[in-house]
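Protein entry
_____________
===
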Amino acid sequence: MAICGAAWWRKDKTGGYVKIICYISAAALLFSGCATQTFNLTGGGSAMPTQDVRQPFFLSGIGQTRTLDAAGVCGDAGKVAKVETITTGMDGLLGAVTFGIYTPRHARVYCK
């Protein structure tokens, strides 16, 4: 952000304003956050996930699926409390650095 702080008011060589680019970049960074989808199957469950797996996706996961056997993790389907899919900040950063070519997500299983 040194460019944003030092020359926020100057025009760059293409005629655009560096200040506008800095604001758009900061807004994109601010609003690009994490996402969590939670599926509550039964009440209760542990506070810590029983299993936390990073699942790789490519090209933003278009047309791709990953399967995690939650019943196998917990020993029985009745022991599964909840399942989450999470895009963490690091996952978002990896997706941004690779321009969406590699976009991992986490899957977490909570057992009773």
User: Anything to note?
Assistant: The chain has two domains: 1-31, 33-111. The chain is about 30% helix and 25% strand. Residues 33-111 form one domain. Residues 70 and 109 are 6 Å apart (CA to CA).
